[in-house]
Design brief:
mainly alpha; 7 helices; disordered N terminus; membrane
Length: 228
């Protein structure tokens, strides 16, 4: 893949690679922090949900900010992927980019439910059931977004496998993570949330996704665009 743009411009592959690497590693930090914070405040049931959220409102505010940062970085990564791979893989980079942008939009929508939960918990009439319902709406909306995210990972994995410079092993890991997210989404339709299989599957998914994306992010920063 080649580019006629000179180094130091935002259209040069090296700049796209750096943007992709920074965005990916930024999400690798902000995403897990936000997710673990929300899981900790949600608790096992509706009882005391409003009290937990009110007690941890500063943490939830940080989680909301982190999720919104992830959504912004998703858009940056979408552009970077399209720019970096776009000239040699036909329509696939554009598809991967639009899937990532769509996921970012769904994530931002889901974060709105977290803001609703925070407003309920810290308002004049805290309501456990309403606060928990808002948290559940966040989870349901985010799960929908993860289906789109799975498709993005799968398409990105195919692009990496077809690319003559990017390590093929990264493509394999991204493909596995993408299909894993899809399997997780289907499994959640038929299994209870506390099923052991879901716990194991979720752990494997997080590990494979982080491994694949973080490794790709590091490769983007260290090697991406230098030989294109």
């Amino acid at each position: 893949m080649t580019s006629t743009a000179p180094p130091g411009t935002l259209t040069h592959p090296r700049d796209a690679a750096v943007a992709a690497g920074v965005a990916t590693l930024g999400m690798a930090v902000a995403g897990p922090f936000a997710n673990m914070t929300v899981l900790g405040l949600a608790g096992p049931g509706p009882d005391g949900a409003a009290e937990r959220i009110a007690a941890g409102q500063a943490l939830l505010g940080l989680a909301i900010t982190a999720f919104l940062l992830v959504a912004i970085l998703d858009v940056v990564l979408a552009w970077a992927v399209w720019r970096f791979f776009g000239s040699g893989h036909r329509e696939l980079p554009a598809l991967a980019a639009w899937l990532r942008v769509t996921y970012a939009a769904v994530l931002a929508t889901a974060v709105g439910h977290l803001s609703t939960a925070l407003g309920i918990a810290t308002g004049p009439a805290p309501d456990d059931a309403a606060a928990r319902a808002a948290l559940d709406q966040f989870t349901a909306t985010w799960q929908l977004g993860l289906v789109v995210f799975a498709a993005h990972l799968a398409v990105l994995g195919v692009i990496v496998l077809r690319d003559h410079v990017t390590p093929s092993l990264l493509g394999v890991v991204l493909l596995v993570a993408g299909f894993g997210y899809a399997a997780d989404g289907v499994a959640r339709l038929f299994l209870p949330d506390d099923a052991v299989l879901l716990t194991v599957l979720t752990g494997l998914l997080v590990a494979s996704s982080l491994l694949g994306e973080v490794a790709l992010g590091i490769w983007f920063l260290v090697r991406g665009g230098r030989s294109r």
